[in-house]
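Translate sequence into structure tokens.
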Amino acid sequence: LHYAGHALSWDKVKIDGNLDELNFVAYFIKDSFVIAAVSMERYSIVSNFSEILAKGNLPKFNQLLMNKSN
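Result follows.
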């Protein structure tokens, strides 16, 4: 399990992957910004998200998807 961010509360959670197979990233979204992410078997995605947070940025969910495809 790999986690980055800080989510005391959120508006929604978007799942990319398969929870049953324990191969996923869950994005915690508040006010359209991704405030935290947790993953199983997709550690590089959360590590990249952690680097974005370290720079002081809170990305929107669609921005993360665009970066993932590049």
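Note: The longest helix spans residues 43-54.
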